[in-house]
Amino acid sequence: MGSGAHLQGRSALLEVDDLTVEFPGIRALDSVHFDILAGEVHALVGENGAGKSTLLKVLGGVHRPSSGEVRLSGEAYHPRRPADALAAGIAVIYQEFNLYPDLTVAENVFSGREPYAKGSRGIRYAEINRRTSELFAVLGVTIDPTATVGSLTVSEQQLVEICKALSVDGRIIVMDEPTAALSADEVTQLLDVVKRLRAEGRSVIYVSHRLDEVFALADRVTVLRDGKHIRTCDIADTDPDGLVRLMVGRDVESVFHRDQVSEGTVVLELTDVNAGRRLKDISLTVRAGEVVGIGGIAGAGQPELSQVIFGALGVDSGTMTLNGEPFRPRHPGDAMARGIGFLHEDRKVAGNLPDLSIRHNLTISILDKVRTGIGRFLAPAKETDVYDGYHRRLNIKATGPDQLIGQLSGGNQQKVLLGRALAPGGRLLLLNEPTRGVDIGAKAEIHRLINILTADGAAVLMVSSDLPELLGVSDRVYVMAGGEIVGHLTGADRTEENVVACATTGRRIFSKELSKR
Amino acid sequence: MTTETIIERTGDKPAKISFGRLWDTWGVTAILILLLLCTPAIAPGFLEVENLQSVLRESAYVGIVAVGMTFAIASGAFDLSVGGQLALTSVVSLMAFSGGGTAAAIAAAIVTGLLCGLVNAGLITRLRVPPFVATLGSLFVFRGIAYLLTQDGPKTLPYSQIHSPFVKLGSLNIAGLPLPFIIMVAVFAGGWILLRRTAIGRRTLAYGSSPSAARFCGISDTRIRLFVFGLVGLTVGIAALTYITRVWTADGSAQDGFELKVIAAVVLGGTALKGGKGTLVGTFSAVFLVSVLNEVLVSRGVESAYQRIVLGCVLIVALTIDGLRTRFAGPGSFRRAITGLIPRKTTQATS
Ligand SMILES: Nc1ncnc2c1ncn2[C@@H]1O[C@H](COP(=O)(O)OP(=O)(O)OP(=O)(O)O)[C@@H](O)[C@H]1O
Ligand SMILES: [Mg+2]
């Protein structure tokens, strides 16, 4: 897929000229040129903080550029607010969701554009519910249009956002990391949808850190680095390594290295744990020095499992032990006091402290360690040291420790939250989607960090919907389906086929080691 | 590629301070200073020492409680019951004074204030009543109890006690500064340290910013509520002491509308209603902005009915700015907030 030849001679639908966007202390876009042809999929790639989302927000009427020119079908296009973009036929799926948690799925999809019954002010619910269901059918998923959005998983919310954009019938569909929160089968469906949109003659701007998607979909690709336009070319004229070099400015080792682990002591053991309707008879062990992966399709109970261990969800029955002692945390604070670190998969709802600076976001779980003097008061200098450490280590792109976390690019927010989870130095780390939205270089660095931590004896329980990551980083993998553990894969059994088989077909595969438990 | 280029590429540029962020902390202070500079022209007697002392003294009770309220609002909650708390605490403290003297009166004020705070925190965390509703209810309950206790007339300080040390609390000047004002400055200083330099203060801001994220940082909402509402109660206790030693009397109707003055000061000061931010510098200036404004009106002979209207308008302006700032958060928010004031044609929903 992905030859640009058929695009030859087509005229540009959207042209961006010399676009500059400035925020206090940073130039997010610096004289960027960019154009979209009718009926092409145009990938936009670059490191975290390169300016991709900023460019899309300008097109969507969220940010106004400091200077520059945008033309749509040859005419000046300067949206002043999101409604202007919609009216011009540009539908944007933003990286951070904009959903009303208390409204239903259908109400969210049609919010602001609800069809009203004749002569009354009543919304035609039957109609929006039906149309929403139809759109989900196109995406190949089943989500109840009458469910409230707050009750959905992150991946379902992402699908609602996608559905919202598709309902607009736009000329240009803009997608900012639509697959960051999706599981493998949902990604496949989405890729098909994008191809269909192109076949219908629409244009798609597609942002992703997953280069396999870029190469499977795009006709052309544009690379941004530090707000500057680096290169636009036909996808056929480049390859993944070349693209990475353009993005990062150097070569990146993207294969996973996992040092051999020696059998450590059992850190965590769950026996027949039940919790609500979400978890059934969960038994698992995690040893010191190990990375244990949890896979499965979204909504199979993976985040709930980690939340039970962290004390954020109650346990109905079963036993848990931590370092051989009975363990029944009633609140995340209990779990943290016992040396457990936690990363939530939902950055916006359960991660960011939006009014706090990056520095304060990083240190919120280690306030005991950044105090000084007889009064044991918080010491800004010590907090800045913590910031400096993670800033360097995870390559967080920020204007300084006092920048608000919400002003960071998505991937950089993720790095801050990962830093927060690691900062207390927990001996058991529950990491949900640790590299969601993170660029290739930082992803490799995070994997290296996990390696170092486990070599030092920490235990990691990692939930990941990114199969190569799940298989590459984990020593063992549990697969969940419908709230149960339906597979335990070790050694040579750790294959994509086995994970998918367990997760979707109801097959159960338990590698030898577990059965002789 | 060498590491050098990479370091250069990610090197920090110094953060430019945006006007919006400056305005958040120093906006009211600037307005206050402007107003003070104008007073010689609009209210000639204002800058006389006696008058200034009286303004500082009168500001103290609102100011002291505004410190507690800043924490409450920063945590994302209101405490509407502070007026009732003040009345009840004052009455109980006066009763304790006639029974046991100065020490008893002080202890009674502090303990009663703290108990009121505990009741509020209990309603919110145990019965799961939203803070707004819980404290609206307890406002009436506290005032009601104060009325019950003063059924046979307001509690007063007997005139014979005019030389007791207790009375000095409200009337003494130290180096020309009224003692209530000094107490208030101390409470502000303590509050600032608590908010900016202690773990519980930081956790309060985190909780106000996002309760769900705070939970996953191990922050217990029960503890935050107990701390915040306990602190409000404590500040009410201290404020009650400066109040009764100034006016010598209290009953159920004492300081009617007190809660609104306090909330007005905090919001005007720049503490966002949605929680997560708190500025005691702003609150401090706003307390004086309100009382200076009031004093200027009084000296111009404006009727008290109009004074209320002015306070109401000031509150509305403060809330409008807060609302706009929340809606237009982000860079250039100030400009957009101002331009947002001018209504645009809204696109009609499809019908
Ligand atoms: N509201 C804002 N205020 C200040 N700076 C901002 C704001 N939004 C973005 N920035 C800055 O602009 C730069 C570009 O951010 P942008 O979100 O466009 O990156 P991105 O390429 O989408 O990265 P990612 O892959 O992490 O999503 C970043 O350095 C970011 O900190
Ligand atoms: Mg982005």
UniProtKB/TrEMBL annotation, chain A:
InterPro entries: AAA+_ATPase, ABC_carbohydrate_import_ATPase, ABC_transporter-like_ATP-bd, ABC_transporter-like_CS, P-loop_NTPase. Residues 14-251, 256-507 form the ABC transporter domain. The keyword Amino-acid biosynthesis does not apply. The keyword Transferase does not apply. One of its GO terms (molecular function) is ATP binding. It comes from the Bacteria. It is found in: Cell membrane. Keywords: ATP-binding, Cell membrane, Membrane, Nucleotide-binding, Repeat, Sugar transport, Translocase, Transport. One of its GO terms (cellular component) is plasma membrane. It is a peripheral membrane protein. PANTHER family: CARBOHYDRATE TRANSPORT ATP-BINDING PROTEIN MG119-RELATED, D-ALLOSE IMPORT ATP-BINDING PROTEIN ALSA-RELATED. This is Ribose import ATP-binding protein RbsA 3. The lineage of its organism: Bacteria, Bacillati, Actinomycetota, Actinomycetes, Streptosporangiales.
From TrEMBL, chain B:
The keyword Cell division does not apply. One of its GO terms (molecular function) is transmembrane transporter activity. It is a multi-pass membrane protein. InterPro entries: ABC_transp_permease. The chain crosses the membrane at residues 26-47, 59-78, 90-119, 131-150, 170-195, 224-245, 280-299. CDD domains: TM_PBP1_transp_AraH_like. Keywords: Cell membrane, Membrane, Transmembrane, Transmembrane helix. It is found in: Cell membrane. GO terms for cellular component: plasma membrane. This is Ribose ABC transporter permease. It comes from Planotetraspora thailandica.
